[in-house]
Amino acid sequence: MQANRQFDPEFFDINPLFARPGEATAAPRYVLGADPMEPETAYQVIHDEIMLDGNARLNLATFVGTWMDDHAGRLYSEAFDKNIVDKDEYPQTAAIEEYCWRMIAGLWHAPEPMETIGTSTIGSSEACMLGGLALKRRWQQARRAAGKPTAQPNLVMSSAVQVCWEKFCNYWDVEARFVPISEEHRSLDGHDLANYVDENTIGVVAIMGVTYTGAYEPVAAISAALDEIQERTGVSVPIHVDAASGGMIAPFLQPELEWDFRLERVHSINTSAHKYGLVYPGLGWIVWRAKDLLPEDLVFQVSYLGGSMPTFALNFSRPGAQVLLQYYLFLRLGFEGYRAVQQSSQDVARYLARGIEKIGAFTLWNDGSDIPVFAWRLTPGHTRNWNLFHLSDRLRAHGWLVPAYSMPDDLSDMTVQRIVVRNGLSLDLAARLLTVIEQETEYLDRLEGPMPVEGQHPGFTH
């Protein structure tokens, strides 16, 4: 009798969750199971497994947003079935997409926001690919018109560039020319640029918010250096600004900074809406300063579900819900709301930077005064018994994900730690984090011998 009770329908009403049929077996991982599973059981298996993930709110490694309000959650659930690329079936969602990128074009000082062109993307990586393709195609067209070869395009960028640009160059047969950063030149700042630029250069990438440290690259200085190169050689090279993070910070916190379409050499700009655009992943935007900077032969007219629509994208099916979330935030916050949110994040970042500097064991690389991101290193000579990887591990034991990693190329022997402050990290939580960093630094400083270094590896940097 007892063995058969689990098959009694009345038993399901009182049976504890973890005693249901199917709960007592390990779920299949690499092979599709032979039989169905109760929906409640399948849900609970996955719900329990993701408890093994870190707490997203305590993840200070990622730039990707981890919080939105309840109204956004409700709107998300009402729209997750919309395919933004299907403009014929979802014309209002398509119209809202246009509202958004034209608003962004205005934020970035496009000369005529209603006469430019832009699009949403699945994130900044896709946006960078599209921006790079436009640069390459325009360069090819100009070279062919001049009767010159098009076989050896190159793209110039900092050695601290985000990995998506390395992918672009690899996937689309473009030579990547990396200008190394150094203690003296901590970002691409125009120094020595003439040694990298030539008639085969399709463009220069400037970063508004370097992923390693959060610092802005001086776009105006890069533009001025390219002006000098053009005066001397006749070679005119455009700029694409990768503003994945800074594109939704600078307009609100540094409005006087000239980095955008106020500089005529800037042809296109991208940003990540799911970073400081404050939207759940994944959504990005790219805007060109004028329509003629996006070659028409890159835009496809596609017949789909009874209509014809233009599309310039790498993905043909992607969610439309995040576009609606972006418009919700534009309506909900407005300029002053965005400014207040971003200022709050920056205040927290600078509070943490000051506190970490006061500990005495660390030297700041930057202080969070650009985007709300900063990095630090161990002060030379402070200790031989531990390094920042050890501190990162100690913080992880408290639930905090604060990555340590090596800087690129000429600074590869330097290890830094970085904190990304996003909306949702309150000053109270930041104060608790600072206390943990102080305590763990004191613990490590009391060690009488060196910590083992075998098996150490960089944390997530991008």
TrEMBL record:
The modification N6-(pyridoxal phosphate)lysine is found at residue 275. It comes from the Bacteria. It catalyses: L-glutamate + H(+) = 4-aminobutanoate + CO2. Its cofactor is pyridoxal 5'-phosphate. The keyword DNA damage does not apply. Keywords: Decarboxylase, Lyase, Pyridoxal phosphate. GO terms for biological process: L-glutamate catabolic process. It comes from Cryobacterium zhongshanensis. Belongs to the group II decarboxylase family. CDD domains: DOPA_deC_like. One of its GO terms (molecular function) is glutamate decarboxylase activity. The keyword Lyase applies. Its EC number is 4.1.1.15. This is Glutamate decarboxylase. GO terms for cellular component: cytosol. InterPro entries: Glutamate_decarboxylase, PyrdxlP-dep_de-COase, PyrdxlP-dep_Trfase, PyrdxlP-dep_Trfase_major.
